[in-house]
Predict the structure.
Amino acid sequence: MIESVRSVLRNSRVLSPGFPTPCSAPKAQRRGRRLRSGAGMPLPAPPARSTPATGLQCTLLIVLAAVVIVGCGRGAQNSQEAAPAATSAPAATATPAVTDYPRPAKPSKAYRLGVSIPHLANPHYVGQAYGYIDEAQNLGAQVTLLEAGGYEHLDKQVSQIEDLIASKVDAIIIAAVSGPGTVGAVEAAAAAGIPVINVNVMTDSDKVVTRIRSDDDVIGRMQADFMGERLKGAGNVVMLRGAPGTSWAEIRGNAFRKQLAAKYPKVKVLGEQYSQSTPADGLRLMEDFLQTYPQINGVYNGADSTAVGAAQAVKGAGKAGSIVMTATDFQLDTEKFIREGLISASVLQQPVTMGRWGVRAAISYLEKKPVPPVMFTGLMTATKENLDTLDLSTLRAPTGWTPPAR
């Protein structure tokens, strides 16, 4: 059985044509080479269940003693409903993604759950790991937590999924290092009768029970709105998209561009780059941008890890406070740079909640309870003005907590 599963994996580790591989990005982005400009790479066509209710994007309205940015709306793709049939039956309507997911009853069986995440170098995934483990304890489940060591280590994540299949866990939860690259692993698990829960970073496989994530399209639009307003509708920006091959880097970046073009056409994107999501990459690429484009007014970051490095480059160039910088997530250095005014705003996901919901979905499915196909966790925006009013319990692990990953 395991040999046949491994055969499936070996024959399916193929990336979509024209899509960047995680390992190829650093070579194409060496210092001194010409920075890429113009439109971003297209996202591969999603599988049938990879998109929530067709054309629907949604975010939560969150108020935490201070005003928090909100957004909600239908995507332009399907803004017009189909006309009713002549029989006068009501037209079909899209079902919104779930935005609240209470804890199920504790099952009588102690289920074994395997969790594979990209890495634990970013506090975002430490918070997510805490959500998995703490929620599993509340529900009497056991968790095996595995990290791939970075988005560039697709082979390691695939190997970890193989090991989880071989150990016959009851369910697998995956935050994918690559959308197309994890298709074979996910489908091998499904073929072995193991349900797969997809959390945070999407696989391109449709063989998953549910997808639990932030609405990355809304994250991109929130950053664009903040940028456009701060620049008063005109200026030059550069983009640090994040890790190639990931759903979030594509969707957020594309939404950012689209929103700027629609609402702030005088805000121009001078160039964009993909990289692994590390401060070192953000520093290096921002230094290159500053040398290539002397008149930069704004910087988009798909993740806050690159923003931390980019902020250091801006400060080193003597331009602190003169460049609007946006990001996603809220590690300690991000908070520090927001307080100092180097990062203007960051859209905050809820990684602890993602982890909790992933475990809840796995347990519910194993207990033969209905599981929504798509669930969106909440978003809020951190700025210098509201930092001290934010509830961080859904974002960060408790101080001093360390994950037992291997």
User: Anything to note?
Assistant: The longest helix spans residues 247-263.
